[in-house]
Each structure stands twice: as C-alpha cells, then as structure tokens.
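Lay summary. Proteins are chains of building blocks that fold into shapes, and those shapes determine what they do. In this project we predict the shape from the chain. Here is one chain we studied, written as its sequence of building blocks.
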Amino acid sequence: MVVVEQINLGMNSKPKPRFDKTETLPPPSPTKVAIKVPTKISVEKTAIEFILKSFLQQNIIPEYVAEHRFDQERRYRFDWAIPSLMLAIEYEGLFSDKSGHTTIKGYSKDIKKYNLATLQGWKILRYTALNYADLAQDIELFLSKL
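And here is the predicted shape, written in a compact code that computers can read:
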C-alpha cells in the first residue's frame, strides 16, 4: 500500500491583495507586452503531478516526463509519461471552456493520438475531474501486472 500525503491546494484560503490600498500603481508602459496567464489552475492536474512526484520519491516508479512527445512525425504529446514502462497518463480537460476535447474534431484527434500510441506499444491511463483520484491505485495495479 502506498501512502500519498494529502495536499492543501489553497481552496479554503483567501487570496491576499496584490497591492496595499494606499499604494499607487505605476503608469502603464508605452510598450505592449503579451503575457500568457493561465485563467484557471487545474486542481486535478496539480494532484496528478503530486501523486507522480510522491511515487518517484518513494522509488515506486522510475523517472516520469511531463508533456512527453512520443511521436516526432505528428508531434503528439502525453500529459505525463513513464517512458521506461511505456505508460502514458492523460488528463482530459472536458470541463474547460477552451477544451478541444469537447468538439467532435478535438475528440477525433484525441482518438487518433491514442490509437497511434497503442499501436506503438503504449498503455494509456486516462482521467477526468471525476476519476483523477484513482491514479495511485491504477499505477499500483499496473505495476503489479509487470
């Protein structure tokens, strides 16, 4: 049995104000700078990453890679992979406003990617916001079958 510590993802804490109410903000810069800021931090992806790091620290799994490119020709990537075990972990962001997974075109692209990976010998574990907590148990089951 593997012990995975529960983490506080800050869901119950109140955000601290960025500036004091008496502080004056600097005037805007005349140069436009495009900064890509995530609109939402995925609690599920953070939890998956935490589980993988915990398993790695406990020497349960070998090194894993985030955003692993498994096919150079099509430039497909897995969210996470353990290349030495040919195990991929995918988080399906079905509930995101900008998710390509919810359109027929995006879903079909995912299926093409998963089929190619399977034909190349990869095992793929797929998760959503409803089942991501199963990852630790699924990895243990996968490892027990080796």
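What the prediction tells us: Residues 104-119 form the longest helix (16 residues).
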